[in-house]
Amino acid sequence: MYHYENHTTNSDFITDVVIGMSDGLTVPFALAAGVSGVVASNAIVITAGIAEIIAGSIAMGLGGYLAGTTEIHHYQAELKREYGEVELYPEKEKEEVREIFKDYGFSEQSQHLLVEELAKDKHKWVDFMMRFELGLEKPNPNRARNSALTIGGAYIVGGFIPLVPYFLTPTPTQGLKFSAVVTLICLFIFGYFKSKVTDQPPIMGAFKVTIIGALAASVAFAIARAIS
User: Fold this and answer.
1) Alpha carbon 7 to chain centroid, angstroms
2) What pLDDT digit, counting tens, does each position of 33-70 carry?
3) In terms of Cα–Cα distance, which of 105, 131, 137 is closest to 118?
4) CA pair distance 112, 106, nearest whole angstrom
5) Nearest in space to 152 (alpha carbons), one of 58, 40, 29
6) Per-residue three-class SS string for 126-181
7) How far is the C-alpha of 145 from the C-alpha of 69, rounded, in Å?
């Protein structure tokens, strides 16, 4: 009988989309709500929203790029250190490998055989230590670029959703009403699928994301009205 295993294989891409989309839906929505409370022109709301989307997507994309490059540099530094330890302290490194196999329940004889076989190939030995001692997987060399583009792009897509109603309505008040409905629906759908992909309770996750977005917009609107 065929057994299908449903595993998420492109977790980096999904993580970046979630980061960009969640902020893209929430921050411009809150900004548009706040501006709507103090101005009488949709053009001002749209201008402020677009400016925020541009600045936010650049900032988020840059953050993703820096995180990606940091991950690569960290891996390379640990890889260099591990090669040095294998060269200088081979017996100590073999003992660490034996401890790993011991934790998996291998007998002493099996541990010895496996360690000696693994030590014949220095590159595989180091790769094993990187994975099982340090818990580090070799990062994609394009990770930083891909992360920047994905997070920035997802932020732009999410950010324009709350702005669209302002293009179609005559006043900020009406625009805010339609924007709230559209954005909260999108937040609910986004929260549902985000939770489903990450194996969290989807309905609870959907409500959580929606409530956070609604609270952010409500606070921004209230503060803007209070200041004005």
Assistant:
1) 18
2) 888 888 888 999 999 999 999 999 999 999 989 988 88
3) 131
4) 10
5) 58
6) HHHHHHHCCCCCCCCCCHHHHHHHHHHHHHHHHHHCCCHHHHHCCCHHHHHHHHHH
7) 9
Residue 186 has pLDDT above 60, yes or no: yes
**The model scores a pTM over 0.85:** no
Helix (H, G, I), strand (E, B) or coil at 120: coil
Task: Dig out the tokens for 123 from the structure.
Answer: 């590159």
Find tokens 């309505």 and name the residue.
Answer: 169
49 close to 163: Cβ distance less than 8 angstroms: yes
d(CA 55, CA 73): 27
Other residues' Cβ atoms within 10 Å of the Cβ of residue 53:
22
Please provide the DSSP assignment of 174-211 as one string: HHHHHHHHHHHHHHHHHHHHHHHHTTS-HHHHHHHHHH
Q: How many CB atoms neighbour CB 164 within 10 A? A: 15
CB neighbour list of residue 12: distance below 8 Å, 6 or more residues apart: 140, 143, 146, 147
At 88, is the secondary structure helix, strand, or coil?
helix
Burial of 132 (0-12, 13-18, 19+ CB in 10 A): middle
* 225 vs 138: CA distance, rounded Å: 51
Domain boundaries, the chain: 11-227
The gap between the terminal CA atoms of the chain, to the nearest Å, is: 68
Q: Which two tokens stand for residue 219?
A: 């606070």
Residues in the chain: 228
Six-digit token string for 160: 């324009």
